[in-house]
Write a structure and sequence with these properties.
526 residues, alpha/beta, Jelly Rolls, TIM Barrel, 8-stranded parallel beta sheet, 7-stranded mixed beta sheet, 8 helices, 24% strand, disordered N terminus
Length: 526
């Protein structure tokens, strides 16, 4: 009997995968009609198979055969007929004979998410609910890593759980009243509306250092401003000489101004470390020699928690720069959604992290999160934070979870408009609601926390979000680059990601909450 697991969909496309095109090996696709139970089943070996991938035999597989996906450029396309429009659980039977692999699942040309494959025996994994139309639909498994075997796909009418969270008060028992009020507001709208959000660019990122570029575009295009503004504590960094040198870019002042004008603030922390930590002298400013990516530094995060180590002393400098900023916010009665150490798991498992804070694996990452939480709350008395854990939805993602007592919100970053199957980035419009990922995360974390989308390229459409019942608490579109480049495009204003029509429809809909629609006494006082 095959094992059944609830499996995930991650948001961010995997980079750096070489692709090689070879002659196609094609077999006729066989549409399979629904049975009386409305379950639909299609054998993967009957699909159109491209490249060096092929059909192989295995007496333990359904029908004695399976599709062997050999290359990251290859794909398996299958046609199925659905008896009616609706959401269907997509259950894939796979075998990861070559170890943990990730590949993509498309439904009618739209990326549904990733298939994370870890088991070495035939195993069913539930990707969650995908939206099928009445009649003919195309399912496509696109290689990302390749080297995984696929037996069949079952489609079962989805029965979606109620959107809810059992833990909606701050994890910090000493949270400020404003922080409690904001969490209470979140719990009231969760699953009923989505909060709009927009990330501002880094210091010096736009012409004339205009931090309001994206917000001016939104206001001019829609007449509205987002409910949430995204910030970054990037400049509160000892490598920039902060706080001893004048590197303060006014982030906290902009936060206070945004909150006093009725908005909500969120912030990540792209904290960098020296590329060569072994030769770094504590306290030195090295603006052109810093790194966040794990392969570009010898910094060892596992030593941060050991008192007296060089890493421990460096981290103390990092917190020395951050704490005054957080205290300034707290003194101004401004709560903050705080998202440190984001996207830690990276491409999955213990060795997939691309940031230094995840390079030593999940155990060290959790220790670092908990250590930082305790220092900020217990030693420095910072109690205005809503702690947001940036998860993926792989089978292994819960291994990275710091724990309910250290987390308030769980978010997934959506970058579904990038196709890496050819070895380089190809951008295309993909306004999927990521419904399957949303429900996957709710179940994965036992419905304890509200689920968010802290970063996104395309913010989906109202029709998709409501039709696929994707109840994300908020989205926060990443910034434009102006002038754009291939590695960092204009996520907000480029119609490849978000058209003006979709932007107007989202920001003016009754489903989406903008800044002017937030309660006048959101934090308990006007």
């Amino acid at each position: 009997m095959k094992k059944l697991k609830w499996q995930s969909l991650a948001s961010k496309a995997l980079a750096g995968i070489a692709a090689v095109s070879m002659a196609a090996s094609v077999m006729p696709a066989v549409p399979v009609a629904a049975a009386d139970t409305e379950e639909i089943k299609v054998e993967c070996e009957t699909g159109d198979i491209t490249g060096i991938s092929k059909v192989d035999s295995d007496k333990t597989a359904s029908g004695g055969k399976f599709a062997d996906l050999r290359d990251n450029a290859d794909s398996i396309s299958m046609t199925v007929k659905a008896p009616k429009d609706g959401l269907y659980d997509i259950i894939v039977c796979y075998k990861a004979a070559y170890g943990n692999k990730i590949n993509y699942m498309y439904v009618n040309g739209t990326l549904m998410g990733d298939i994370s494959s870890t088991e070495t025996e035939w195993t069913e994994t539930n990707l969650g609910a995908g939206r099928l139309k009445k009649g003919t639909n195309e399912l496509k498994i696109q290689g990302s890593w390749g080297w995984c075997q696929f037996d069949y796909i079952r489609l079962v009418p989805a029965v979606l759980p109620k959107i809810h969270a059992t833990q909606v008060t701050p994890c910090d028992p000493k949270a400020t009243k404003e922080t409690k009020a904001l969490m209470k507001y979140f719990s009231k709208i969760y699953g009923k509306h989505i909060l709009s959000g927009q990330q501002e660019i880094y210091n010096g990122g736009h012409t004339n250092n205009d931090f309001d570029t994206e917000f001016k575009y939104l206001e001019k295009t829609t007449g509205k401003l987002p409910a949430i503004r995204g910030f970054d504590f990037l400049n509160t960094n000892p490598l920039y000489g902060y706080p001893d040198h004048n590197s303060d870019d006014g982030t906290v002042d902009r936060m206070i101004d945004w909150a006093r004008n009725g908005g909500i603030c969120t912030a990540s922390w792209h904290i960098t470390v020296p590329s060569s930590f072994s030769s770094y002298k504590l306290g030195d400013a090295m603006q052109w020699s810093q790194a966040t990516y794990s392969e570009k530094t010898d910094f060892d995060a596992s030593k941060i928690m050991t008192e007296g180590t060089k890493e421990n002393k460096y981290w103390a400098l990092c917190l020395k720069g951050l704490v005054p900023q957080l205290k300034k916010l707290q003194d101004a009665n401004v709560p903050l959604i705080f998202r440190p150490f984001h996207e830690a798991e990276g491409s999955g498992g213990e060795k997939g992290s691309w940031f230094w804070w995840g390079a030593k694996g999940s155990k060290v990452y959790k220790q670092l999160w908990q250590y930082t939480y305790k220092i900020l709350t217990e030693d420095y008395g910072i109690h205005n934070l809503i702690w947001e854990f940036n998860s993926y939805n792989y089978e292994t993602s819960t291994d990275w979870y710091p724990g309910d007592e250290y987390v308030d919100l769980i978010g997934l970053d959506k970058y579904s408009c990038t196709d890496w199957s050819t070895g380089s980035a190809r951008y295309y419009h993909n306004d999927t609601s990521m419904s399957s990922a949303f429900y996957g995360l709710m179940k994965k974390y036992d419905f304890h926390k509200m689920i968010t989308m802290p970063e996104n390229d395309c913010f989906s459409t109202v029709d998709n979000l409501k039709g696929e019942k994707a109840g994300w608490l908020y989205f926060c579109t990443w910034y434009d680059t102006h002038p754009g480049n291939d590695s960092n495009p204009d996520f907000l204003s480029d119609p490849v990601f978000n058209t003006k029509k979709d932007t107007i429809e989202m920001y003016t809909s009754n489903y989406c909450i903008t800044r002017d629609e937030l309660p006048a006494k959101l934090y308990g006082t006007k």
